[in-house]
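Weekly modeling sync, notes
Attendees: S.R. (lead), two postdocs, one rotation student

Agenda item 3: backlog of single-chain predictions. S.R. asked that every request posted to the team notebook include the full sequence so nobody has to chase files. The rotation student volunteered to paste the first one in as an example of the format we agreed on. Action items at the bottom.

Example entry:
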Amino acid sequence: MKQKVFVWKRLSVCFVLTTLLLGLTACSVGGKIKEYSAKQVYQDTGGQEQTHNIFVSHDKMRMEMRSPGEEGSMVMIYRKDKKVAWTLFPEKKFYVESKLDEAKLRKAFGEIQTDMKKEELGTETVNGFKCRKMRVETTSRIMGREIKSTATVWISDRLDFPIKSQGKDGGVMELRDIKPGRQSSDLFEIPAGCTQRKIPFFGMR
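Predicted structure, as returned to the notebook:
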């Protein structure tokens, strides 16, 4: 059970960081990389590593990993163009759909307010990419609760995703083996033969 909670928490952080940092990294640089594959490596404070495969094509993203409990694989697909996120279980031939509907979120949880503070910490080169290093503090207010988080991030002007991020607990998430290039459109679609399942409040916890 602890493993499952840990995995879901880490997945949530991955996707929240993605959408949050898109606003920090957006720019019109000629050398912008819009399509690539990479290894996303998470290292905990004990030095143990877990690796996910990620694929990015403009406003689409796919993350492949082992499912909680090591029972097969799990794929998360983020489709900003369709305002939807899919969680796919390939071996079990089913997926769960989550709507990325801001209006419905506001109706369910009320107005979500987020304050962000950024502190520039200079520049560093990480995995061959020149990055801006900064400390980001966010304060969100949801349903009367205040949620604070702090992270140090390394952001390249060439990617819409942090090359490296370190949480307050010391855990580090890093992109390695970054390979620019066109990604197959099939990576961001539900495979034939998979059926949708309805799971109330899936992923909300």
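Discussion: group reviewed the output briefly. The radius of gyration is 17 Å.
Action items: rotation student to repeat for the remaining queue; S.R. to check formatting next week.
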